[in-house]
TrEMBL record:
Cofactor annotation: pyridoxal 5'-phosphate
Catalytic activity: L,L-cystathionine + H2O = L-homocysteine + pyruvate + NH4(+)
Composition bias, Basic residues: 11-20
Protein EC: 4.4.1.13
Biased composition (Polar residues): 1-10
Source organism per UniProt: Usitatibacter palustris
Highest taxon of the lineage: Bacteria
A Pfam family of this chain: Cys_Met_Meta_PP
UniProt modified residues of type N6-(pyridoxal phosphate)lysine: 212
Family: Belongs to the trans-sulfuration enzymes family.
Name the record gives this protein: Cystathionine beta-lyase MetC
Signal peptide per UniProt: none
Amino acid sequence: MKSKGLTTRTKLAHAGRSAKKSPGTVNLPVARASTVLFESLADLDDIQKRFDADEVVPTYGIANMPLRAAFEELMVEIEGGYRAVTLPSGLAANAVALLAALKTGDHVLMVDSVYGPARRVCDRTLKRYGIETTYYDPLIGAGIERLMKPNTKCVYLESPGSHTFEVQDFPAIAKVAHAHGAAVIHDNTWATGLFFKSFEHGADLVVQAATKYPGGHSDVLIGAVVANEKYWPSLRDVARDLGQNASPDDIFLALRGMRTMEVRLRTHQASGIEIATKLASHPKVKRVLHPALPSDPGHVLWKRDFTGAAGLFAIELVDTPREKVAAFVESLELFGLGFSWGGFESLVMPSNLRSIRTATPWKGGPLVRLQIGLEDPADLIADLERGLEKLG
Ligand SMILES: *Cc1c(COP(=O)(O)O)cnc(C)c1O
């Protein structure tokens, strides 16, 4: 597809549909395959040569099958960058991005507000392979300079953090990282490439937990990492060497979800802001953590760097015992209690930050994260107001 000059919204409808194997349908079929058959040995040799030269040609079920290639093409159209790999989950994408940037003896600077399981990748597996991690304050900005060591080879950002929603000064941090020759990884799951262009702000590798907004229906686990040209060879090789793949059915669902992602995100955004604004004046709510609210400490940076907001934010409650928080979340009728987010339906999740953060310990009251789905926001507000009464 000739995508020059088209907006991301238009690309979502058209990119990734040009694969030669399409039988003429709008969407590519789900092809379940391990073996790809060749007409002749000359054909096989030719395809192998093109594969080795990094052409997108299918050689085996794990490599460049049309659906997977289409998903990766569309991911690059949305996020920017050079090429993408498909992973079986967002967490696998977090881990593979780190492994693509680091080797034994290196040091990584990891944002303290990062998605929890990514901490375990650092504290357990990377540590075992001789890679050291330092957690940093998400609000550190250019001050990250003082944490850089001669062996710092990666600075990892997640902006805004998906529990506490601090907006990072991305360009300032990326500038310092690059001056020291370190790779910049961004987990862009919250904003997606629709609302934040990571590569334009200095990212080298971008993670997308496509389980969330790209999937959009709480029925698929999938991830992607997009690299710029510099980091593409090491990303491609580590994903390939670890045998990373996703099922064609899951790729199909994610690709299908992405076609409507822009429309869904606009509703998630509008309803999220409406509900966050309403909750900000509720007597049981101490603070709303949502960077699109002008009162939020991250609002200025969000306005400078982002073009929109997701439907995921948090409320800090006035000090309340856990049993009361339980009574609140369990009384909600339209908000399911469960992990993950980005689907069409609303979810609620109390965060347990006291046991997680190390560089910047959480000193506030109980935090409850809300994923605002596609329901009518008036119904969601009524449900939340009824639930908040349970706090006494
Ligand atoms: C959910 C999430 C992940 C992990 O995605 P899974 O597909 O659930 O493994 C990674 N990063 C962020 C910010 C997330 O919210």
